[in-house]
Specification:
The chain has one domain: Aminohydrolase, N-terminal nucleophile (Ntn) domain (Glutamine Phosphoribosylpyrophosphate, subunit 1, domain 1, 4-Layer Sandwich), CATH 3.60.20.10. Helix content is about 30%, strand content about 30%. The protein has helices at about 50-60, 65-70, 70-75, 125-135, 145-160, 200-215, and strands at about 1-10, 15-20, 30-35, 40-45, 80-85, 90-95, 105-110, 110-115, 170-180, 190-195. The chain has a six-stranded antiparallel beta sheet with strand order 7-8-1-2-9-10, with helices on one face. A four-stranded antiparallel beta sheet has the order 3-4-5-6. β5 (about 80-85) and β6 (about 90-95) form a beta hairpin.
Amino acid sequence: MTFTLIAVDREHGLLGAATASRSLAVGNAVIAVDPAVGAVASQAWTNRRLRYQMLEAMADGASAQEAVDRLPGWDAEPGLRQVAALDLQGGIAAATGENTSGWAGHSVAGDHAVLGNLLVGRKVLDAMSRAFAAGLGIDGIDPRSSLGFAARLLAALDAGDRAGGDSRGRQSAAVVATWVTDEREHPPMLEVDLRSDDHEEPVAELVRLLRLQAERR
């Protein structure tokens, strides 16, 4: 139902995630970022609690891979889940359950992970990875800033959308981005936290909102 990117810019100390779906308010259910811990995503037949469990595991010293590997101990139906985690020590991991609605899959690179289900095909994830690796952004927004990192995430999300995205269509999208910090805060302080919960062109709407935020800085 969803395609998602979690990513880090280790050079500039930036962390973020972006997601889109033919479901209402995807940003409320799928992604979570803790600036002192990392970024996570939980989707498919979504178990929202897995986001908290993965972040807490990493805060206690688990790697991203270890957090993902604990899924069967946290969830009675791991075959229905699709998750990803990124820690601040260089680890990134993802898993796609065998009962996740097709087409479903994931891909992990050195600084990001992409994952999706009910997509038109792998080309969606490939397009997202290529766009993120290319460092595409939005004219007029400093690419080294938190807003610039959010723009890069949205460029990847837009590339996935243009490649076909969710096979059912469009409805909602969300993006979060922030500077990495040393101390945890509750709730976490995020530089960018934008959602388009019900829109005909949700990714384009997020681009508009990000431009608006940049203008008001």
